[in-house]
Fold this sequence. Notes:
- By secondary structure, the protein is α/β, with parallel strands linked by helices.
- It starts with a strand and ends with a helix.
- The radius of gyration is 20 Å and the shape is globular.
- It has two domains: 16-248, Type I PLP-dependent aspartate aminotransferase-like (Major domain) (Aspartate Aminotransferase, domain 2); 252-340, Aspartate Aminotransferase, domain 1 (Alpha-Beta Complex).
- Helix content is 42%, strand content 16%.
- Pyridoxal-5'-phosphate (PLP) binds at residues 59-61, 64, 85, 137, 141, 170, 172, 198, 200, 209.
Amino acid sequence: MRIIDLRSDTITKPSPEMRERMAQAEVGDDVFGEDPTVNSLQEKVKELTGKEAALFVSSGTQANQICINAHTRPGEEVICEYRSHIFNYEAGSPALLSGVQLHPILGNYGVLDYENVKEAIRPLDHHFAQTRLISLENTHNRWGGTIYPIKKIKEMRRLADEHNLKMHLDGARLWNASVVSGISIKEYAGYFDSVSLCFSKGLGAPIGSIAAGSAEFIDSTHYYRKAYGGGMRQAGILAAAALYAIENNLERLKDDHRRARLLAEVFNTISGFVVDLQGVQTNIVIIDTSLNKKPAPQIAAELAEKGIKVQAFSSTRLRVVTHLDINDQDIDHTIEIIKKF
Length: 341
Ligand SMILES: Cc1ncc(COP(=O)(O)O)c(C=O)c1O
């Protein structure tokens, strides 16, 4: 049976060309800073983000967490969005590793309201954890790949500056936002003290993320990467895949976005499935199944039996993600199956 896996853009497998680039990579010991391919990836990301330094790490979680750790001290507080990745899917590591508490605020399509954030910033008083950092997510995974408007980012930056707060961007899928909005990675990154980017999502590399920021900041994240057991040795093999991904798989993200839109529109015509089309901005589609008699996990299981794998996000929500290993024929086939479903 033909299997079409729409659960996540992390499931992609490296292409023969990407593997060839990995096989040819020049390597060295990256813990000594001597891997030339890792170094050139870090240089490339410095250029792309306009930041002074970058550090290659194993995962998006690690990139976010070393940044949180380097920005904060135990007992401090980080403001984030309620459905954000750092709050929901990073295993409680802000508490575990940095000793900080998160202060989540429900946003709209992942976008935080200025007044709500202003209200959430703790006054300087011994009763309170001190607010140190605001973390934003762009695109926003759990809200369905939504793009954080640049106007709202600028507004948040002003607020952060007024209160002497740092800003971190979880940019695991910033590539997708940039391709749609036409706003460069550099412009987005310019509003933040630190940014994390992933190569293993839409860009299709097998492993790897990166944190970027000032030279002093990235120097301090080195310590946390080591402390988390994240120092890698001949990591150039992985960095080569990331370089290949940046060079070859960035512009094509618009195909993923077009396909996600098409799937969203079709799902929306089927009774028992509702998609908020306003929220479909990149490669993720969230399908509300609350009008369906079956719970979302059961629908996902039944679709899987027909060869279509989707993710149950909750008892009433499914998530569908388009990616590098999905082509137009896969979309046509998926549409055929769901229309019959
Ligand atoms: C928005 C966002 N940030 C961070 C991550 C973490 O990435 P990783 O799975 O590489 O730790 C993910 C993973 O899907 C994500 O969607």
